[in-house]
Every structure is written in C-alpha cells, then in structure tokens.
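Review form for a predicted model. The reviewer records the input and the model, then writes brief findings.
Reviewer: anonymous (R2)
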Amino acid sequence: MQLGRITGTVVATRKDENLEGLRFLVVNELSGNMVETGKIVVAADAVGAGVGEVVLYAQGSSARQTIVTKDRPVDATIMAIVDLFEVNGEFRYRKE
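Model under review:
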C-alpha cells in the first residue's frame, strides 16, 4: 500500500456498468516524509475519504480485494483513512 493525499474528484457520467456506484478520487502519492512525489492516480473510494485527507491506497490486483471493488475493473483503491503516521517515535502526520 501507498500513502497519498486526496486532492480532487473525478466525475464520469458515462462509464462501464461495472463501475456504476463507485466514487473516484484523485490521489497524490506521498513519500515517507509526507512530501508529494509528483505521482497522481485516480482511485476508487472504498472508505468514504474526502479532499485533503491522507489515505492508504493499493494498486493492481490488490485494488480489487475490497467488498466495494471485488471483480470490478479498477487498478487503484483507497482502502483506509490515516489518523496517525509515526516512524521511529517521530510523528510525521496526525489527523486533526
């Protein structure tokens, strides 16, 4: 899984029927130091994340392992909203 920050939404009114009901968000990948890497991905939202939140997302076949995305043609899924990120006793992120 990767760390990312939600920076936007994607609306697609015409899409494959297997994507109906899914919400898509723009995720900017974050490094371990909470700095944007420049990589951007559109991910299906399985947890109700919102713009500005830090999330964990998975790509590839792992993206299809949630109840929301099982057997759907997605390549990235937001699987968790991060409350706290700590490395070696140092808090790098804390949700306020």
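Findings: The CA atoms of residues 85 and 92 lie 6 Å apart.
Further findings: The chain has no helices and seven strands.
Recommendation: see findings above.
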